[in-house]
Amino acid sequence: MERKLVPVGTLGKPHGIQGEVKFSLSLPDPEDWTPYRTAFFQGKGREKLIPISITGGRPGGKTWIVTVDGWTNPEQVSGYVPGTVYVERDSLPDLPEGSFYWFDLEGMEVITESNEPIGMVEEIIPTGSNDVCLIRSKTGEERLIPVLRETIRTVDVENKKMVVRLMEEFE
């Protein structure tokens, strides 16, 4: 059975002089990362995933400040980051009915409430207030849709389909 790895966040800039690093989570509950001491990391511009062990962490404003085993100084951290942290999908907790992980949205077909196709979810962009779905049509046109109850009407994770209400429809 092939293991399915999913992104749970990004390691960014070094923090302090002890080799700590800023960790931006893309999980609904910031506490969800703590059981994932064993993870995989892919730095920008690198093809291979490397196993890492997150040995500690604490809140640091909008991010977490974490310690990665073997990363002992900011110069060493700078040689790896920035990049994406992955964990095994089966290790994530089940979410309540109607909830989903951001990575579940990527690749979903997006249609309007009137069943008009818009495109596919290419990525979720964190903005600081509410996140935004980048939708790409078959012709390459991009559309940004805020992740709000008013705009994201239904999400069917099993069938990879999202129904949205476009902002023009509010006017």
Explain this structure.
The chain has helices at 74-78, 102-105; strands at residues 5-15, 20-25, 38-43, 50-60, 63-68, 83-88, 109-112, 117-125, 132-136, 142-146, 152-156, 161-164. It is mainly beta and 171 residues long. Strands 1-2-5-4-3-6 form a six-stranded antiparallel beta barrel. Strands 10-9-8-7-12-11 form a six-stranded mixed β-sheet. The protein is elongated, with a radius of gyration of 18 Å. The N and C termini lie far apart (50 Å).
Q: What portion of residues belong to β-strands?
A: over 45%
The count of strands amounts to 12
The radius of gyration over CA amounts to 18 Å
The percentage helix is under 10%
Question: Distance between the terminal alpha carbons, to the nearest Å?
Answer: 50 Å
Strand arrangement in the largest pleated sheet: 1-2-5-4-3-6
| Category from helices, strands and their pairing | mainly beta
Oligomeric assembly: single chain
Low-confidence stretches: none
Order of helices and strands: EEEEEHEHEEEEEE
Shape, per Cα inertia axes: elongated
- In DSSP terms (H or I, runs of 4 or more residues), the helix count works out at 2
Report mean pLDDT, rounded to a whole number.
86
